[in-house]
Every structure is written in structure tokens, then in C-alpha cells.
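To: structure subgroup
Subject: Chain for Friday's discussion

All,

I'm putting the inputs and outputs inline so they're searchable in the archive.
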Amino acid sequence: MIKVIVLSDSHTYSLDLFPRKILEELDTADWIIHAGDFTEIDLVNELKARGNFKGVRGNMDSLEVKTLLPETELLEVGGFLIGICHPAEGGPPLRIQDRIRAKFGRVDVIVYGHTHESKNEVRDKILYLNPGSATGAWPATYASYGIVEIKDNIRVRIVHI
């Protein structure tokens, strides 16, 4: 089984400010996905140092992060295609799933952030996963992250801390 830890909207500069539960999960991950709004490049580098990593820029990221990371990314894991975006242009969260869907062709999963509200929902045969805010940054009322387990199928959980 392949285990993917999914993060977003950290709005911080270091893993030192993450909840301990997330750090423990990262130690067991085959892949780490971050859907933007790291805020600072140091956090990007810390996540990259932990192993297989895919990340995209968010609307609140520093210029250094925005220069380094793409707006969208694709990751194939265990025969499933995962699209990743924040969306980097920001904007109101209304109809966000429609806006991000337009950024991808055929995918099985779309990981996104921006709203700070966790969501695990299937629409039109695509799984939409928003892990919420990894640090509980406002307007979130708690920290949260996603766990994607891939074997013959995809199983997703959102963990609220």
C-alpha cells in the first residue's frame, strides 16, 4: 500500500510549528503533497528533505516559493492520477471546485486548498480532497490533513487535530 500525506494552507515558515501528529505521519509517508500557501521557502525545503514531495504555489506564498513551484502539478501513484492546485490566483471560495476542475484533463483525484475547510467529496467520478489547514490557520477552527492510501483503489481520510 502507498501512503500519501496531503497538506495545505500551512501559512508558516517551519515544520517546527506543525502539530506533532502531522510530523509523526510524515515519517511514515511514501509521498507528501502540499497544495500551497506554505508562505515561506524554508517550509518547502523541509518537506522536500523528507522524501517524495509534490507541491504547488498558493496565493499567499512568498515570491521565492511562487518562483520555485508551479501553479498545478500532476502525480501518478499506483496507477491513479492526482491533480494538485491551490488555486494560485486566490479569489473567493465560491464554486472553487468548478474553477480547479478546469485546470486539469482526466484525473482521478484533485487535491486543492485555499478555503482552509477540509473536504472529501466525489463529483462526476473525481475525488476532490481539500485537507484544510495543516496548522489551523484562520479561518480554520482546527488543524487538519489528509491521508490517501492507494492499493487496488483509493481510500481517503481527513484527520482533524
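Points worth raising on Friday:
The chain has a mean pLDDT of 96.
The CA atoms of residues 80 and 98 lie 21 Å apart.

D.
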